[in-house]
Amino acid sequence: RTPLIVLRGYLEMMVDEGGEKNGNTGALQSWQMPIKEMSTQAVRMGRIIEDLLKLARVESEGLQQKQEVINVPQLLASLVANAQKTDDKNRQISHEFDQSLFLHGRPGELESVFGNLIDNAMQYTPEGGVIKVRWWVDETAAYFSVSDTGIGIDAKYIPRLTERFYRVDPGRSSASGGTGLGLAIVKHCLEHHDAELQVASEINVGSSFTCRFPRYRVHLRTAA
Ligand code: ATP
Ligand code: MG
């Protein structure tokens, strides 16, 4: 991480100081484009490294992380509030939580799972779309789902989504900064919770990602 932080720092300085408004012309000026591009790519590389480190952590020590009974509705409420606050595309983000539904698991991992799926819905749903976050239980399992009215995914790509670095449309998602590690992290974290991911999607209609947690992890609490 540190070497990249140094590179990024100097590149940003060069972008700031090399511009025309600082009276630079000629050679210095013509390097502005490549320097900006290097700076952008260095930021991306930083994100990839963060994600890889996270994935490595999840894989190696995930199972040692302490398990506890997690107030999932509370965790989700804060993730949804954050999505609503940062939404700059006028989407309708709604939620429907079973307030009494708690889960036995590893809080850091579950936050990664829920956060990544909400992030994806935000990333792949255009202006004015609808995003719904749900958390409910039936006789056999607890379910978390995020559905969106976004760009959708062709059925033939769905089996590959959880591979590391896999992106359906690398051109488009690199423009939006994705590295293709989010769902790989989700998959690993879910495996640690004996849970599974179900994906349903249709191009230009939308997607829904559902996590199914076995019933023995469920703790029903009456709200305080
Ligand atoms: P990041 O590592 O930043 O999460 P990413 O979002 O590209 O990058 P994943 O979260 O692993 O990577 O998702 C993999 C690919 O699956 C995405 O690049 C995108 O093509 C597709 N995808 C995931 N979620 C959605 C969604 N809600 N709607 C449409 N496509 C999606
Ligand atoms: Mg993602």
Key attributes of the depicted protein:
binds magnesium ion; about 45% helix; 7 helices; about 220 residues; three-stranded antiparallel sheet; binds adenosine-5'-triphosphate; alpha+beta; single chain; about 20% strand
What is the β-strand count? 8
Structural class by helix and strand composition: alpha+beta
Helical fraction equals 40-55%
The ordered H/E elements are: HHHEHEEHEEHHEEE
Placed side by side, the strands forming the largest sheet appear as: 2-4-5-7-6
Largest sheet: 5 strands, mixed
Give a description of the structure:
With 224 residues, the chain is an alpha+beta fold. A 5-stranded mixed β-sheet has the order 2-4-5-7-6, with helices on one face. It contains 7 helices and 8 strands; from the N terminus they run αααβαββαββααβββ. The mean pLDDT is 90. α3 (32-61) runs parallel beside α7 (182-191), α4 packs parallel to α5 (107-123) and α5 packs antiparallel against α7. Bound molecules: adenosine-5'-triphosphate and magnesium ion. The site of magnesium ion (MG) has 5 residues, from α5.
In short:
The protein is an alpha+beta fold. The chain has helices at residues 2-18, 26-30, 32-61, 72-86, 107-123, 170-175, 182-191, and strands at residues 68-70, 92-97, 101-105, 130-137, 141-148, 196-202, 206-214, 218-220.
